[in-house]
Amino acid sequence: MNALWFFIRKLADYRRELFIGIFLSLTLTLSSIALLTLSGWFISAAAFAGLTAITAAHFNYFMPAAMIRFLALIRILSRYADRVVNHDYTFKILTQLRTWFYQQLIPLAPARLLMHRSGDLLNRIINDIDTLDNLYLNVLSPILISLITLIFITLFTAHFTLLLSMRMLTFFIVTLLFISIITHQHSKIIGKNIQESIALLRINTVDFLQGFIDSLLFIKKENRLSLITKAHDQLMKAQKRLAILKGFTQSAIQLSSGCCVFLILLIGIPLVEKKIINGAELAMIVFLIIATFEQLLSLPLAFLSLGKTQSAAVRLLEIVDHPPAVIFPEKSANNNVIQHHIVLNALSFSYPHQATNVLHNINLTISAGTHLGITGPSGSGKTTLAYLIARIWDPSSGFISIGDIDLKDFSENDCRANISLVTQHVHIFNASVRDNLTLMQTNYSDKNCYHVLEKLELAELVRNLPEGLDTLMGEFGKNFSGGQIRRIAIARALLHNSPIIILDEPSTGLENELMQRIWQNCEVDFENKTVIVITHDEKLLAMMDQHLLLKPLH
Predict the structure, then answer these.
(1) Are 32 and 152 in contact (CB under 8 A)?
(2) What whole-number distance in Å separates Cα of residue 296 and Cα of residue 254?
(3) What is the pLDDT of residues 85-108, one digit of tens each?
(4) Topology, domain 2-320
(5) Which letter does DSSP use for residue 318 in this model?
(6) Can you give the pLDDT at residue 341?
């Protein structure tokens, strides 16, 4: 419940809208109950009045009829206003939650987000936040409205007979609490299963779509489709259980309504005989019970939605509750980096929740302008070392310095200005070639862009595109091959013109001859830069000044 309380406190930013929404919902509920109650009394009173000519002549049917029309009008207006205000409020909440969630994600990127699959993150951003719209509309509002309504109807019936009022209140509380608790206990498990099944379905679907070509080439696509089908079947099973539980809840409420009516008649008829209340008033109380149960049906259903909502809240906080992997100072301690030599001193690192080190007690000096090739078997920590130098992660012990300045003393802007990292898995935005090269910075001209594309032998290709540099690359760069995407990422690093460039498997997807030509084209650009290349390509390693061989610790 702590996760839910966190998001409930966020609703306080819209206290005014919350008050108006609750007021309109309460007006709708009370007017609906009053309409049926007054109608029941009116019909019964008219029937009793018609038993004799004298009572019929003195019966005032104008006032009740006018009140019924008035209540009907109030119900219509309040229903419309309730939908408009509360749904507008819900959309504002969702907007605020999405903005808040993105703001929390930014400090966690990229290190913490690398630990989650893209489909899982997508599901939390879309489905889990959408599920939280239940928090106000289907959880908090019905609970508050039900409590206030019970107070009103108890006070109203107490005006006629305290005995019936207390019996009715006791029955309402016991019945609704019992049904709500049973519903919540079961829906909590089912709701968690639904959220997890939706997440698994989205993860498998995203993985299948992103790796569709690879699945066709290397894996039977039926294997991937079977994972999607299995997740879908799990979701359908959980939703079916929730639908059964909802049906049970509604049936239990209807049964409770009938039992309560029977109990009130059992107690009320002797009161009529004793003339404590009259027959019309007893009929009015019966209609009041029927109307109240109909309106309070939303209370157990609120607990039905509580399980899913609570699970969504927990899943969101699972992401944002983690501290950032690195924390940058607002300003660098020293901006005067003259020599960009890199020193690794007693460097050790282990990933979170792992007891063993990936790297242990590494001491290394990389002179400014050195071209260093790093090789080693999988799992030896090559990519991890690149992430540490680029300060994606901080070392568990030891330190890294650039130009005799501790890497932790650089602000984020200065750190990124000094180090460019081309990762093994390149990210391409669904934007133009220009935007993917410049990353939305406006200080690069077309000439600058084509200059680096010439180096990577992509200039002619881009010039021949329908809109040149303004051609959209598509989602994940789907309009370009894997090798072309990698070359665009290297061109992006060249355009950035930082003194330290780290390339992780730059030759992947490229022919040996093409990679050699690209390296020769970039020799002038790399001449005064510190270039660190992680590769298994022997020919590319031969072009390096120094080699570093990493071996697995275990």
Answers:
(1) no
(2) 11
(3) 998 888 888 888 899 998 998 888
(4) ABC transporter transmembrane region fold (1.20.1560)
(5) H
(6) 87
